[in-house]
Write a structure and sequence with these properties.
This protein has 223 residues and is mainly alpha-helical. It contains eleven helices and no strands. 77% of the residues lie in helices and 0% in strands.
Length: 223
């Protein structure tokens, strides 16, 4: 059985064949950042996107799909922005101190950005909604890829392994700033420099845990 869209929906799509779906996704993100996921409703999203309720349900019969694609749209644009920053870092070859201060400045600029709150809320929602978890994983993997490129430009050994710590630090301090209402990103530069210094000091080797040290000692005795 073929399901066709209502006549009103098809006419609206003909008038704006490429715009309504994206407007819905962006409106969803705006509402999440402003009021939270719990405040979402199809009627509120449709009103924010300036589309009919029928158009919204035609494109997104499932709210899980709507949330997932909304996060994916944000991530795609955010990754493109961060990749441009990473390319600029590689081209300029700045010092670690300069990079850390630039990242701190970018973080400070995003304090009042409701999109950051929306992204964080969607990641937290993914902990309870498996349908969102793949998008969340891809998001963090993309951020780690950009961080690895920046670390590689700084000559940090094994940049892919240390990229996760960089992303976790930036994300964690971002949550702290949002939750506490702090208006600047003071301390982020120092935290990033600590990671870089530690990675360089170890030459890219993973830290030796008590278990790995015990196994190493056992091997040495066996020899």
């Amino acid at each position: 059985m073929t399901i066709t869209a209502p006549v009103a929906v098809r006419q609206e799509e003909k008038a704006a064949p490429l715009g309504s779906r994206e407007r819905i996704l962006r409106a969803t993100f705006v509402l999440i950042g402003r009021d939270g996921i719990g405040a979402l409703s199809n009627r509120r999203i449709a009103a924010e996107a300036c589309v009919s309720l029928g158009t919204l349900t035609y494109h997104f019969p499932s709210q899980a799909d709507l949330l997932r694609e909304s996060l994916e749209l944000f991530v795609a644009e955010e990754v493109a922005r961060l990749e441009a920053i990473a390319a600029d870092i590689r081209a300029r070859c700045p010092t670690p101190e300069q990079i850390a201060l630039e990242v701190q400045g970018l973080a400070a600029d995003s304090i009042a950005d409701p999109e950051r709150i929306a992204e964080l809320e969607l990641h937290m929602h993914a902990a309870r909604d498996p349908a969102l978890q793949e998008a969340s994983r891809r998001c963090f993997a993309a951020y780690e890829g950009v961080a690895a490129a920046a670390l590689e430009g700084l000559g940090v050994p094994d940049p892919e392994r240390h990229a996760r710590a960089v992303v976790a630090t930036i994300t964690g301090l971002g949550v702290q700033r949002k939750g506490s209402g702090t208006e600047d990103a003071a301390g982020l530069a120092d935290a990033l420099l600590t990671i870089v210094a530690g990675a360089n000091a170890r030459g890219g080797k993973p830290p030796q845990t008590n278990t790995s040290k015990a196994m190493s000692d056992t091997d040495s005795q066996g020899e």
